[in-house]
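INFO batch 0412 | record 1 of 1 | parsing
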Amino acid sequence: MRAHTVLLASSLAALLASGSAFAKLPPPSEEAKAKAAEAAARAAWSNQVANYQLCQSMERVAQGYLERARAAGKAVQPSPTPPCSDPGPFSYAPPTARPIEAAGAHSPPQTAATPPSTTQPAASGAKP
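INFO prediction complete | emitting tokens
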């Protein structure tokens, strides 16, 4: 019984201590957002470099296989594959901040004088 109460007390203390771990964090600053965007761009570029290196490696292996097969007298035809594309050096241009209206907001330039909807029908029932 004594071990049971010790276990209960320690689990209760752990539960109370972990409550502070679920506290809400403040929103990231603009600088932190910019660094995160650059890190994401660098990670995407790094993936492109890895894909390029993998493509080159597969090309070397395929070329070696074709050479050995032709030397052994086998008639093999290589499959057409797209060429490896080099991603080039890393370059990152942060997106420029646009004003709200230039960002695609669809609000009229004047202040509304009436509500957007009325009780009157849009068209009368008569046909032209």
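INFO post-check: The chain is about 45% helix and 0% strand.
INFO record closed
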